[in-house]
Structure to design on (130 residues):
């Protein structure tokens, strides 16, 4: 009887893990597709290297979002890093050519949310003009 209960529980957990894995894989695919190939081809510092550089500035942090973008004429990796026990997000900009840390700024969760809304509006506005 205990064996049957154990097997049923194990199968149930397996059934739950499948959809969760699929969602995480879809999110990863989405973030990789959002990186523009023309920017990626110009970067000398890769995604993983930029992540390691940024995490050197925020020990015990976890990258929540990472994006390759052009800002003020510079190609940068922008990383949003969350630290356990804090509601703040640390935004680290890493030069995608040299690997130099250009800035480290702390933002509240509310400020980060507002920034995302503004970025979304700009993207929508740019798409409407096309």
């Amino acid at each position: 009887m205990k064996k049957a209960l154990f097997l049923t529980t194990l199968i149930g957990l397996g059934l739950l893990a499948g959809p969760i894995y699929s969602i995480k894989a879809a999110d990863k695919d989405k973030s990789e597709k959002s990186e523009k190939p023309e920017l990626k081809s110009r970067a000398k510092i890769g995604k993983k290297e930029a992540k390691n550089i940024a995490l050197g500035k925020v020990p015990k942090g976890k990258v929540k979002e990472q994006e390759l973008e052009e800002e003020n004429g510079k190609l940068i990796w922008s990383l949003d890093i969350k630290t356990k026990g804090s509601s703040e997000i640390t935004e680290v900009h890493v030069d995608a050519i040299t690997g130099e840390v250009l800035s480290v700024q702390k933002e509240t969760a509310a400020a980060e949310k507002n920034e995302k809304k503004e970025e979304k509006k700009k993207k929508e506005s740019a798409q409407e003009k096309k």
